Amino acid sequence: MAGYRELLARVKAEIDEISTVDAHERLRAPDAPLFVDVREPDEWDEGHIPGAVYTGRGRLEQRIEGLVPDKTRPLVVYCSAGNRSAFAAKVLGELGYVDVLNLAGGFSDWKRSGYEVTTPRVLSPEQRTRYSRHLLIPEVGEDGQQRLLDARVLLVGAGGLGSPASLYLAAAGVGRLGIVDADVVDESNLQRQIVHSTDRIGEPKVLSAKRTLEALNPDVTVVPYQERLTSENVERILADGWDVIVDGADNFPTRYLVNDASVWHGIPVVHGSIFRFEGQVTVFKPGEGPCYRCLFPQPPPPELAPSCAEGGVLGVLPGIIGSIQANETLKLVLDRGDSLAGRLLLFDALGTTLDEVTVRRDTSCPVCGDSPTITEYVDYVEFCNAPTVYDA
Amino acid sequence: MTRVRIPPTLRAEVGGARELEAHGETVGEVIEDLVERYPPLRQQLFQNGDLGAFVNVYLGGEDVRMLDGLDTRVNAGSTVILLPAMAGGARL
């Protein structure tokens, strides 16, 4: 029966190792390996190699295939001195990972060499419980949850679309939610605007939403703007700093204003619109895809653009579209998955069908095109009421 | 025969249908066939004889403006989507 030292020596003979100097070099190379930290949670919390993924040695076998599905991906596994990770490297080889190196000298040697270290901010025990289902998902995890807690999302409209979007963003722990809406809660809103409730009738929507969302999650701060978004206040509101805008407005002037401001500030917009049984949802990401004006260069004449107040809307429809907006927003914050940028989803609640059309950036777009002709805010109400102008 | 998806804002003009079938070799002919059968549709889609800039027309998921416009040829069994902008959301 081998003792620990003999066993360690035997394992080390079976695996390949890399020095901290070489590992540091490879971290900057184009085909950088993924670092896998197998230490205890408190060691990880005190600092780790930037970009590393964490899975404690105890659950390595269970979790690694979820974290790293590609078994050909180069891995560097480390612990504090290179001994625990030697056993981990052996197990990874047995699991079919073909390019596994053990970091000789481990994290201690890395730190002694003066290489960069990330010290994660630590979630409180309450947060660990609250966000436990996020922490279990490799695409979110602790880093992702911190991103969400640091994120600042501005919702234009606390109505049908803003209700589910804000509820899910608050529940997910998005730390700062701005809400722009001048309206008060009306009884006819409650058929779909689930962030409000019967006892809020007559209360400003932004304050009603703030109460609901902060009660749902104390990690969230809601910044209320009880005003219509206009050319006059948009710069002041954007100066408060927002990472993503969720557009759930009900009128064209606001949508074109949100678009122009977002292009000029480089803020992605998660766009949703609804009418009766149909919804449209997409993402406008400045610099990486089309903007709203590329999709709809001209608003329809007012008689062809009935609002939900005039035409009605099935109550659950904004629930579906607003939830897709929340999903897109979380993905943008987490920088995960494929966003809806360049794709417009069309949802038909009557047929329960989902269609997708391609939206391309228009190089002649007056706002995001190669030679923009609109470079400052215009009178959006006039723009949307003016007779339609045709492309030549 | 080409299927044409009718958006909710235009259904009153076509007796409430969500989808109609129409004939034509090109996207323009398909729309013209519809407009002849449902004349009120004309003033909703066209202004000064041209398709309004506020109506997007897609064939196979692609904006026909990126193809050959109304001259884009349609294949049997393809679907045309008429898509006007919708504003609906919160009442601001």
Report what the structure shows.
The complex is a heterodimer of chains A (392) and B (92). With 392 residues, chain A is α/β, with parallel strands linked by helices. Chain A folds into two domains: 4-120, Rhodanese-like domain (Oxidized Rhodanese, domain 1), CATH 3.40.250; 151-385, NAD(P)-binding Rossmann-like Domain (Rossmann fold). Chain A is built from 17 helices and 13 strands. The model of chain B has no long low-confidence stretch (mean pLDDT 87). Chain B has one domain: Ubiquitin-like (UB roll), CATH 3.10.20.30. With 92 residues, chain B is of the alpha+beta class. In chain B, the strands form two sheets. In chain B, strands 2-1-7-5-6 form a five-stranded mixed sheet, covered by helices on one side. A two-stranded antiparallel ribbon of chain B has the order 3-4. Chain B has helices spanning 27-37, 40-45, and strands at 2-5, 19-22, 46-47, 50-51, 55-59, 62-63, 79-84. The interface between A and B is large, with 60 and 30 residues.
Explain the layout of strands and helices.
The complex is a heterodimer of chains A (392) and B (92).
Chain A: H1 4-14, E1 16-18, H2 20-28, E2 34-37, H3 41-45, E3 53-54, H4 60-67, E4 75-78, H5 84-94, E5 100-103, H6 106-112, H7 125-130, H8 132-135, H9 141-150, E6 152-156, H10 162-171, E7 176-180, H11 205-216, E8 221-225, H12 234-238, E9 244-247, H13 252-265, E10 269-275, E11 278-284, H14 292-295, H15 308-311, H16 316-334, E12 343-348, E13 353-358, H17 380-385
Parallel strand pairs in A: 1-5, 2-3, 2-4, 4-5, 6-7, 6-9, 7-8, 9-10
Antiparallel strand pairs in A: 10-11, 11-12, 12-13
Chain B: E1 2-5, E2 19-22, H1 27-37, H2 40-45, E3 46-47, E4 50-51, E5 55-59, E6 62-63, E7 79-84
Parallel strand pairs in B: 1-7
Antiparallel strand pairs in B: 1-2, 3-4, 5-6, 5-7
Structural class category of chain B:
alpha+beta
The H/E string of chain A reads HEHEHEHEHEHHHHEHEHEHEHEEHHHEEH
CATH architecture descriptor text of the largest domain in chain A: 3-Layer(aba) Sandwich
**Could you say which structural class the secondary elements and strand pairing of chain A correspond to?**
alpha/beta
**Gyration radius from CA atoms of chain B, angstroms:** 13 Å
Q: What's the main sheet of chain B like? A: 5 strands, mixed
Strand order of the largest sheet of chain B: 2-1-7-5-6
| Quaternary organisation | heterodimer
Q: How many strand elements of chain A? A: 13
Q: What is the residue-averaged pLDDT of chain B? A: 87
CATH class of the largest domain in chain A equals Alpha Beta
Q: Detail the poorly predicted runs of chain A.
A: 387-392
Percent helix range of chain B: 10-25%
CATH superfamily of chain B: Beta-grasp domain
- Per DSSP, what share of the residues of chain B sits in E-state strands of 2 or more residues? 25-35%
Number of helices of chain B: 2
The CATH topology label of chain B is Ubiquitin-like (UB roll)
How helical, in percent, are the residues of chain A? 25-40%
